[in-house]
From TrEMBL:
Gene3D superfamilies: Vaccinia Virus protein VP39. One of its GO terms (biological process) is methylation. Keywords: Lipid metabolism, Methyltransferase, S-adenosyl-L-methionine, Transferase. The keyword Oxidoreductase does not apply. GO terms for molecular function: methyltransferase activity. It comes from Acidithiobacillus ferrianus. The active site is at residue 367. Residues 21-92 form the DUF7884 domain. Belongs to the CFA/CMAS family. This is Methyltransferase domain-containing protein. It holds the Pfam family CMAS. It comes from the Bacteria.
Length: 417
């Protein structure tokens, strides 16, 4: 055991490159070692197997699983813990798969429903502890970065509505409608007629009750439905999909956008808001943290790169009008969520238990770190159904997204030619 511990410490020190690591490790036999005089993180390894696993690589996954299962203790601020985990991951990097291997989940209606149930049906009361008043579980939209989460999420809902240029009585489909926040906002502020679909039983029940409570049953319909089972054809004026297509799977993106094309009217708009890979090769095989996310957070989740999303949209005659990267907005959103969850820690543990609390806390803190350091991105992509050769009217510029009465359609002016 002494040789194993010594090999581990020597390996870490060798790969630090002279940089200080603010970490103290307390080993299973009581032996302690500090890599720096300034210690910000204390790690307790309760078993020698963790050292063996770390020496084999994929440090972030090893540390994440050990922390959740309670066999690795971590004391310190999340941001310091994650910085230390990143340094250890450089010392013990993820093993690369064989060339050409593409990790893909086998997405089916039943398997997707099971994955959604695992993540979203924890309990509505749990999400209410730390989400904003509109119960929006996706990246908020900040104008200064100093807004509270309620303000930033209201700004996000309105930003989407403005981006889609919603008009009174237009038919809006929200795929993956969550707890109904976007549809309720759009109905109250833009007077749309809306349909929302979700696979989560908890979200479905909450959203339907919310629509009734808000007096919007004449404007909004909530369905417990898979996106592949939407019956309408050439029916909706606008489609929104927020934080949903991460669950679709890369191999299913073509089918997903084919459904959107089918349900949209000619000239209808779609706004797809979702997490994307920051690097093209992040799609291939295993990367740091993926085992942890697959096992504990988002079973079968797959993150495509922006190029793949745009290609699949274009393949279904969905012409891209606008792309916006909200990466820093999601880092800030996640920081708010972690802080709010920590503030209600005792209540959360009473609801979901210690282990699941650790999963949520470290997952959201880790995601905040990942977005801030450009390991992941978040793109809003606005597109129009352009199936015919004749130009579908669209705005000349983006000013309409931010200013009232700034929307002007691009119409050809042939003059005398």
């Amino acid at each position: 055991m002494k040789d194993l511990r010594t090999n581990f410490l020597d390996h870490v020190k060798k790969n630090l490159g002279g940089k200080p690591l603010p970490l103290r490790i307390i080993f299973w036999d009581g032996h302690e070692y500090a890599f720096s005089e300034q210690v910000l993180v204390t790690m307790r390894l309760h078993s020698a197997r963790h050292v063996t696993n770390l020496l084999m690589g994929n440090a972030i996954d090893v540390l994440g699983e050990g922390y959740v299962e309670g066999s690795i203790g971590l004391d310190g601020r999340y941001q310091d813990i994650l910085a230390v985990a990143e340094a250890l991951n450089r010392a013990f990097p993820a093993k690369k798969p064989k060339t050409g291997f593409l990790r893909r989940a086998l997405h089916s209606k039943s398997r997707d429903a099971e994955a959604i149930h695992y993540h979203y049906d924890v309990s509505n009361a749990f999400y209410q502890l730390w989400l904003d008043r509109n119960m929006v579980y996706s990246c908020a939209y900040f104008k200064t970065g100093a807004e509270d989460i309620d303000t930033a999420q209201a700004q996000k809902l309105d930003h989407i509505c403005r981006k889609l240029h919603l008009q009174p009585d237009e038919k809006l489909l929200d795929i993956g409608c969550g707890w109904g926040g976007l549809l309720v906002w759009a109905a109250k502020h833009y007077a749309i007629q809306g349909v929302g679909i979700t696979l989560s039983q908890e979200q479905f029940a909450y959203a339907r009750e919310r629509v009734e409570r808000e007096g919007l049953t004449d404007r909004i319909e909530i369905r417990l439905q898979d996106y592949r089972d939407i019956p309408e054809r050439d029916f909706f004026d606008k489609v929104s999909s927020v934080g949903m297509f991460e669950h679709v799977g890369r191999a299913k993106l073509g089918e997903y956008f084919q459904v959107i094309h089918r349900v949209l009217k000619e000239g209808g708009w779609v706004m797809n808001h979702g997490i994307t890979a920051s690097q093209q090769d992040d799609e291939l095989g295993h990367h740091s943290g993926s085992d942890f996310m697959d096992k504990y957070v988002f079973p079968d989740g797959e993150i495509p790169h922006l190029w793949r999303v745009v290609r699949e949209m274009a393949g279904q005659d969905l012409e891209v009008l606008d792309v916006e990267n909200l990466r820093p907005h999601y880092a800030q959103t996640l920081i708010h969520w972690v802080q709010r969850l920590e503030a209600r820690k005792a209540e959360a543990i009473a609801m979901i238990g210690d282990k699941r609390y650790r999963i949520w806390a470290i997952y959201m803190a880790g995601c905040a770190y990942a977005f801030w350091h450009n390991w992941s991105a978040l793109h809003q992509i606005l597109a129009v159904k352009q199936s015919r050769e004749e130009l579908t009217p669209r705005p000349w510029e983006r000013r309409y997204q931010y200013q009232e009465n700034a929307f002007q359609l691009a119409e050809p002016d042939w003059g005398n030619i």
